Amino acid sequence: MQGVKSNSTSAGKKIYTISELTKEIRFSLEGSFSSIWVEGEVSNFIRHSSGHCYLSLKDAESVLACVIFKDAADALSFKIEDGMKLVCFGRISVYNKRGQYQLYIEQAQPKGIGALQLAFEQLKNKLKKEGLFDAEHKKPLPLLPSRIGVVTSPTGAAIRDILNIIDRRFPNMHIILYPVKVQGGGAKEDIKEAIEVFNRLNNVDVLIVGRGGGSMEDLWAFNEEIVARAIYNSKIPVISAVGHEIDFTIADFVADLRAPTPSAAAEIVAGKKQDFLDNIENLKQRLKIVLLSQKDSVEQKLKSLRERYAFKQPKILIQQYHQRLDEIAKSINQGIGHILRKKEMQTLAARGRLTALNPSAILKRGYSITTRISDGTIIKDESAIKDGDLIKTKLAKGSIISKVTDG
Question: Do 264 and 342 share a domain, yes or no?
Fold first, then answer.
């Protein structure tokens, strides 16, 4: 068999190795299906740590394995999820290792809804669940802003409108522009950086972030997640002013306040100051009315006091008060005397009771008290003494020492 090829027989028939057959099939498929559109429902979607995506597209009867390499996956504006219906463009080829044909997707679009609109809804739902739109996170605008930061294009209509309105209404307001790209590549990074720089410097009272009108693609930088999180994390209050009144972006939902246009944002900021000045004028008028009213009231009270008897005859009034004081003093003295007499009688009565209870008084009436000398015990019963005990008998005057003898 030496010199005979492995893919031939003695009869001259070609025998393929598995690799050769797979290669031939791949060439055939790639030649026939080098650029095709395929529609199907997504299942088993996985994004590998490498950035490549693996999924299946299926219909009611069949399943097609698909791959989206990292560069194509990064270019998608929306997030692929299981159950989503896609229209995909790519090429059919064979994965040699498993001998499996699959679609290598280069572009993908959600069926029935634009890719940008789907991406908008996906990010909106994600950030809403995280609480970035919650009212409790909204910061109030300053009452009297003196320095306003503006993040927009230096050549667009937005900055011109803002400057015209501020200059016309309050020329003493200081505007600081951070020029950025507002659409296209690098726009989202520019806007994010501008917001973060203003926060690091902390040199403005409020931020206006926006641009003039345009298509959804033109406004897309304000629908990017990094811009939304920069607005949310800003310690400086942010007014979102993107597009026209009918345009809504993710930035509008995250910002502390949405203005329908850049001009409206300038009106809001200037209006805050005007509201304050109007309020000051209103308070001045109210204070004036209150002071005039109080002045009239005080004058009426003074007039009434001047008409009172005390101011007409002050000496007589003082004499009457002296007389009243004398009457009060007399009443107090009488009360004190009554209390002293009562206490004196109580004291005499108590003294009499104490005298009656005094043992000396009892002795004076002929009674005596006998105690045993050894321990001082008062003898109340003859059984308490025995023969030989010394006893002491106390009389009204003096005492007698006795010795008990049996007898």
Answer: no
